[in-house]
Amino acid sequence: MSPSSAETGLEELTLEALRSVLSSRRRRAIIRYVLAADDSVTVKQLVRALSESENDPTFETTFLERCQRVHDSLSQTHLPKLEEYGIVEYERGAGRVSPAAHLLALEPYVGSTTAGKQSP
């Protein structure tokens, strides 16, 4: 028996919302990372993972500068949007990101997660 949309958590994510969420490479990377962790992660862990994966040799920035840009982007844009759609729970004060109701429903759209080792 195939699961209904209510069982997968997609009942509240419209096609437009799904497109909006998945349109960002960083949001897809966050979803993959949290899925792979299968538990809450720190914003610091997310920043480090994304900063390492986004290393572009054409930009002359330090790792610290790259981390700061990624942190600002996550905390001001991407994490609040994922929280708005019930994909993650973002505890800004504690600096933690946890799975929320709709996270598992997005797994087929972001690629596989293998033992928490997939690059964002």
Briefly characterize the structure.
With 120 residues, the protein is mainly alpha-helical. Helix content is 52%, strand content 8%. Strands 1-3-2 form a 3-stranded antiparallel beta sheet.
Give your account of this protein's structure.
By secondary structure, this protein is mainly alpha-helical. It has helices spanning 5-8, 15-22, 25-37, 43-53, 63-84, 107-110, and strands spanning 41-42, 88-91, 96-99. A 3-stranded antiparallel beta sheet has the order 1-3-2. Strand 2 (88-91) and strand 3 (96-99) form a beta hairpin.
Output the strand order for the largest sheet: 1-3-2
Q: Which structural class best describes the helix and strand composition?
A: mainly alpha
Shape: globular
SSE order = HHHEHHEEH
Helix content bin: 40-55%
Sequence stretches where pLDDT stays below 50 over 5 or more residues: 1-9, 114-120
Mean pLDDT: 83
Task: Tell me the radius of gyration.
Answer: 15 Å
Biggest beta-sheet profile: 3 strands, antiparallel
Number of E-state strands: 3
Oligomeric category: single chain
Our count of helices gives 6
Quote the beta fraction: 5-15%
Termini separation: 32 Å
Features:
single chain; mainly alpha; 3 strands; 8% strand; disordered N terminus
Secondary structure elements and pairings:
Layout: H1 5-8, H2 15-22, H3 25-37, E1 41-42, H4 43-53, H5 63-84, E2 88-91, E3 96-99, H6 107-110
Antiparallel strand pairs: 1-3, 2-3
Helix pairs in contact: 4-5
